[in-house]
Amino acid sequence: MMIPAKYLMIAHKRVALGSNSNGKEVIYRLMAAGLPGLPVVNEEMEVIGIVTTFDLLGVIREGLNLAEITAAKIMSKAPVTADPETTSDKLIEMMLENNFTVIPIVKDKRLVGVVDRFSIMDAHIEPRVYPGVNRYFEG
Fold first, then answer.
1. Beta carbons of 131 and 6 less than 8 angstroms apart
2. Residue 28 maps to which CATH number?
3. 105 lies in which domain range?
4. What is residue 16's DSSP assignment?
């Protein structure tokens, strides 16, 4: 079943980090959003990177100071993004092929939301959680 990203990102619209966010702030934002990763954006809301829980675990393992390290230093640069019309099938393909946990959704180069693996799975088991998805389900 193909559901456009714009309906899957409803719960996670424009959740992002600034490049100067420190490691502690990044952890708090990830936990508050309930996401495995967050895009890092510049002042124009353009996605310049992504920080995942795996990046943070690496920082902790290396013994680096979370209060001093910034998102810009630990982010994966030039992350893969998708547009709001990208289908769930394509998002799943991108996630499986690249072991992604979250994909930033952009329109006109600006962040408009994120889709994570759970958003896609939830839409297939509980369509009413995502209001726009209902029209893709029959019965």
1. no
2. 3.10.580.10
3. 5-136
4. -
Give phi and psi for 22, each to the nearest 5: -85, 170
CB proximity list for 72: less than 8 A, separation 6 or greater:
19, 20, 40, 49
Gap between the Cα atoms of 85 and 46, Å rounded:
18
The answer to whether 105 and 46 are in contact (CB under 8 A) is no
The pair phi, psi for residue 33, each rounded to 5°, is: -80, -20
Q: Whole-model pTM above 0.90?
A: no
Per-residue pLDDT tens over the stretch 67-110 = 999 999 999 997 899 999 999 999 999 999 999 999 999 999 99
Q: Which two tokens stand for residue 83?
A: 């547009």
